[in-house]
Amino acid sequence: MNYTERLSNVAVLGAAGKMGSGILLLTALEMVDLSLKPENKGKVFVIHAIDVSSEALVGLMRYIRVQALKAAEKKTVQLRAAYADREDLIDNEEILRQYVDDVMLAIRPSTNLEVAYNSTLIFEAIKEDPELKVKILTQLDKNNPGKPWYFTNTSSIPITQLDEKAGLGGRIIGFHFYNPPAVQKLVEVIKSAHTLPEVEEFALQYAKNLRKVVVPSADFAGFVGNGHFMRDALHGISEAETLAKDVSLPEAIYMVNKVTQDYLVRPMGIFQLIDYVGVDVCQYIMSVMNPFVKDEDLHSDFLDKLIGQGVLGGQYSDGSQKDGILKYEKGRPVGVWNPDAGKYVMITNFQTSGDTRLGALPASFQPWKSVAFAGRKEEMLTAMFNEIKSMDTFGAKLAKTYAKRSKEIGLKLVSDNVAFTEKDVNTVLLTGFFHAYGPINNYLD
User: Fold this and answer.
1) Which mean pLDDT values do the consecutive 10-residue runs of the chain (445 residues) have?
2) pTM (2 decimals)?
3) Residue 297 CB: number of other CB atoms within 10 A?
4) Last residue of a domain, one of 190, 217, 244
């Protein structure tokens, strides 16, 4: 079965979720693009969008239609050539409409898992629960006579564990898209101990066709991305808890969040990032990773307490940020949760004292957006970190400690053979987390 044949009958599990919807969109577009090639004219391509909620599937189809039109508008010239034999399609508007119709016709929304019993390729993007994933994968494989291939989007569960427990015989690979899949360029590809060479070959071809940046990871819980992020988050929480011995916890969280965003030139502070992913999601990922880690404890009582109080973060269906550790207005933090009082404290109550305690930012400071996409990025970063090295303010000290720990985490991922190279670690943080620079660097040495 060649590449095109493998993509002729696809299923996406969890298709209406924030990850599944992006995977469905990208794959549907790839399938329709294949169908428009002369050698594939007349071939039928089907992609089953499977989710437990029929209501969510209705919303999914609306999302796909809007996004398919945007995709079509970006390749009008190519589509004119692809539809050149269609005499009924005259102007660009008709061509774009036809492309969107072709995408929508390829998608079959369903709440029944059984529709995947004839699929040749199955994407799994359901809840990050090992037992649930094994149960679903086992059911599919026992009822699908075609021995399909499985692409799991897990961000933390070892692929070998899923492979062996579901009895898939190496027909599975970790294909970890970053959120949102339609925008994020990074994909972590993780082989199980048994992944068949042809499955990996197909995965790399699929990633290439989607124009993704591929970083391979060893099959160790958390892989490269969460292997760094979870430890980085735990360090941020620890720093805030230590600082809370001298100031209130909300003020400590504000200060650490500010340092990680401004002094370390990141797109958002560490507590914002935890909120973005979801407090409960982070806690669960740590719980999945922890049994596989022997020399450290990946657990946070702080996160446990927040979850017990219903402070979860995450995003609404439109992508806007829910309140979590921080309270948001128009996407900007305006308050910090106080777990002792069970309510948010507005940042204006302690911003002045917190900023005073941190001290002035480096004179060469530029926000992330001004640095990350600048032609002079290396020069700007070098100047700023050279200044931070010479500073004795509390904010500078906190930044230096944090950056050192971030580098240590990256180097340990390499020494533990989770990441294959230092460059891979940096690529994940640069591409998947949009950092302005990789954690393994010499800026503060």
Assistant:
1) 96 96 98 96 95 95 97 95 90 95 98 98 96 98 97 97 98 96 96 98 98 98 98 98 97 98 98 97 96 94 98 88 96 96 97 98 96 95 97 98 98 97 98 97 95
2) 0.94
3) 9
4) 217
